[in-house]
Design a protein that fits this description.
By secondary structure, the protein is α/β, with parallel strands linked by helices. Helix content is 30%, strand content 13%.
Length: 114
């Protein structure tokens, strides 16, 4: 590493807070794990992950019993099947937007058949 430093490799960027700085401490998703899968209207794949992180949540890439919410759109595939198998709350794109902007308390209640 010293040779790299001597060669001019820049290890930090002056004025940049570093990785993870965008995470909203105390955000509306603090302590929650969310998986986004499939095509969600209004979000790119990276954009959905950024929205989760910016709201203080953990953007996971796989569904497990530790997952709190799964946002699923067309093309969700096996992640959606796993979420259904585990009985997790599955959100559409509109509900995902509510989740990342207003938090879980703003989501409509779950009703039978939904």
């Amino acid at each position: 590493m010293q040779r790299w430093a001597d060669a001019g490799v820049q290890w930090t960027t002056p004025g940049h807070p570093g990785p993870g700085a965008a995470v909203a401490a105390g955000g509306v998703l603090e302590g929650l794990t969310v998986v986004a899968t499939g095509s969600l209207d209004g979000y790119t794949r990276d954009g959905a992950q950024e929205a989760i992180i910016n709201a203080g949540g953990k953007a996971a890439s796989s569904v497990s019993k530790k997952t709190d919410y799964v946002a699923a759109g067309p093309g969700a595939g096996s992640k959606l099947a796993k979420a259904e198998e585990l009985g997790l709350r599955i959100l559409d794109a509109a509900q995902f937007h509510i989740l990342v902007t207003q938090g879980p308390d703003a989501l409509p209640p779950v009703t039978d058949g939904v």
